Amino acid sequence: MKLVVFTPACLLVGLLGQPEETAALRSKALAPEKISRVDCSVVAEQPVSQLQVGDEWSDPHFTSRACLYIDVGSETPHFKEETRADLESCRLWCNQYRHCSHFTYGAREQRCYLKSGAMKRRGARGDITGPRICDISTVTLYGVESTVPSIEETQTTAASQCREKCAKNAKCSHYTWNSGNRRCYLKSGRMSPRRSQGGETSSPCEWYDVGSESEGVSFHCADKTECLIQCQGTNWCTHATYNAPEQMCHLKKGTPKNRAYKDDVTMMKTCAQGQFNA
């Protein structure tokens, strides 16, 4: 039985669609010295539950690796390039520039390219591409469930239907769907991932500690639910960012231009809108 966890923000690895394929490549990506030898054409059919990757949730570098596209480059023009010893150094260099949306690292030549704008992916053996920002609450995780208590439980025939139910519930921040019993579990708050022995799929509809620099308007708001409702009632609003300590709601239009910002929570107008892209 396949264990699946979906997230609409950062895609996990490469352009693969099967959970076992993605997890197998992700496990290889955990070791930086092996990244240059990752081959998308040779993928072990190993269930996620059998992977030995330890307590990667507490590894500060794990989430950034979980967002990698292996053997994938970006056609987006670069604004800076230089030789970097490893992938992590390239990612950290991107973090130094607010307008850096993603990076591509040529593992063979140890060359790092910083990019600004939408990620235009293309197949490129030996290249590794990743977004500047990747948090565990934004990552599609396979073979993992969320331990956060459910606020609603129902029956659905597909994960997409579960996602739609989460989109219609203002309190739902993410969901878990079990492919074995077709049960849909709506959750509230930040995702708390844990390995699962069933056929779970979990995906967030909100992204924590991630803001958006897209154009918009700002005003005081009591909570993030009210902020999202204001966005849903505004024709031009595509997403909203809420900062709880400041009680500020930022309605945004256009494609999210994400950035790391503590205490910000960014929400698409509806969860069913799709991925929160770099």
Automatic annotation (TrEMBL):
An annotated GO BP? proteolysis
The domain of life is Eukaryota
Under the heading SMART domains, the entry gives:
APPLE
A GO cellular component term found in this entry reads: extracellular region
Write down the SUPFAM superfamilies for this protein, in alphabetical order: Hairpin loop containing domain-like (SSF57414)
| Signal peptide coordinates | 1-17
Q: Which UniProt keywords apply?
A: Disulfide bond, Repeat, Signal
What InterPro entries does the database record attribute to this sequence? Answer: Apple (IPR000177), Pan_app (IPR003609)
Q: Any idea where the Apple domain is? A: 134-212
Q: Which CDD domains match?
A: APPLE_Factor_XI_like (cd01100)
A Pfam family per the record: PAN_1
User: What is this protein called in UniProt?
Assistant: Microneme protein MIC4
